[in-house]
Write a structure and sequence with these properties.
Blueprint (H helix, E strand, L loop, with lengths): L3 E13 L3 E8 L3 E7 L6 H4 L8 E8 L6 E10 L8 H17 L7 H13 L6 H14 L21 E3 L17 E3 L1 H10 L18 H15 L4 H8 L1
Parallel strand pairs: 3-5
Antiparallel strand pairs: 1-2, 1-4, 2-3, 4-5, 6-7
Helix pairs in contact: 2-4, 2-7, 3-4, 4-6
Bound molecules: zinc ion.
Length: about 240
């Protein structure tokens, strides 16, 4: 059986039996792969520190015949989020990235665009500032999954929303003008729509120097999370945790 080697981001680990770990990796080679790391809790040589969530690793694994789970042979750390201090808010933001990747990416389907996005956003999540990177990641994941509606026109009447108010609703796709909005809609501010348009044209690193407190684009994040949760048909655990920070 041929060993496969790929860059990967560790998404989750679960204890399995006495000393094994079940590991979910997002690999560059073939997308999300679940595997078993045998004796991972004992073998510091093969896995020492490399299986912490959101660690960027070089993984070596192979597929066993007639078995769904790969066998993880070894993992070497390329970059660890543990290299800088992990405060609670930062841990939640990192967990959010992991949960979105785990929930949105199908098994064994490579996406170089999502992989590069994830690495770029993890770079921006090294310090105490979180909200810009979280917003950028949610926006681009929504776009790359093909869920992002047109932000500049009303989904009902087609009228341009540039220069006018825009509304969204948990059960509707897309934005609506003031005439077509449903009951209990929320408003997506002009400012946040401008931020989204700019983010869709720019690299995440271009926003790194900007001071970005939580209220900035909060309505945009709510809009995006509603879209994502509608598609995965469940609530994101980390969305609620982020809200409370
Ligand atoms: Zn309309």
């Amino acid at each position: 059986m041929a060993l496969k080697e790929s860059e990967a981001i560790v998404l989750r680990t679960y204890p399995l039996r006495e000393s094994d770990l079940l590991v979910t990796l997002f690999t560059r080679l073939e997308g999300k792969v679940k595997g078993v790391a045998r004796a991972a809790k004992k073998s510091k040589r093969r896995f020492g520190g490399a299986l912490e969530p959101l660690t960027y690793v070089r993984a070596i694994y192979d597929d066993r015949e007639r078995q769904e789970l790969a066998r993880l042979d070894s993992c070497e750390v390329i970059e660890s989020p543990m290299a800088t201090e992990v405060s609670y808010p930062r841990a939640v933001a990192l967990g959010h990235v992991a949960e979105l990747l785990d929930e949105l990416m199908p098994d064994r389907e490579a996406s170089d665009a999502v992989f590069r996005l994830s690495l770029a956003v993890l770079q921006e999540l090294r310090g105490p500032k979180l909200w810009m990177a979280v917003t950028y990641f949610e926006l681009w994941m929504t776009r790359l999954m093909g869920f992002l509606p047109e932000l500049s026109e009303c989904v009902v009447c087609g009228r341009s929303l540039n220069g006018s108010r825009a509304f969204y609703h948990a059960l509707a796709d897309g934005l609506m003008c003031a005439d077509d909005k449903r009951l209990a809609s929320s408003e997506l501010s002009h400012e946040s729509r401008m931020i989204a348009a700019q983010m869709l044209r720019s690299r995440v690193s271009e926003f790194a120097a900007i001071d970005w407190p939580k209220p900035v684009a909060e309505d945009l994040r709510k809009f995006l999370l509603q879209i994502l949760e509608r598609h995965i048909e469940k609530k994101l655990v980390t969305a609620g945790m982020l809200e409370k920070i």
